[in-house]
Amino acid sequence: MSDSVQDCIDRLRDLAQSSTSDYRIAAGQIVSDFNAQAGGADREKLKRRLEDALLVGRNSIVSYLFYVQHLAWLAVLEGALDAA
Q: 20 to 30 A from 21, CA-CA: which of 36, 72, 76, 80?
């Protein structure tokens, strides 16, 4: 089942690379869909990975060339974690 966790993370990464009006809402929907299908262990694994990624992302120094992309990724992570 851990492949489904990676699939969810991959979908979130794809979302961060797209342009959408609200990354948080779209990420929340992806995680809600995942939670509807996943077992408790996979939901917990996803939540831990999202928490870790958000912690690292918030404390990373990013070049101004990638700043907008980084902000999009943080918005995706925040929306996903809210739904997790």
A: 36
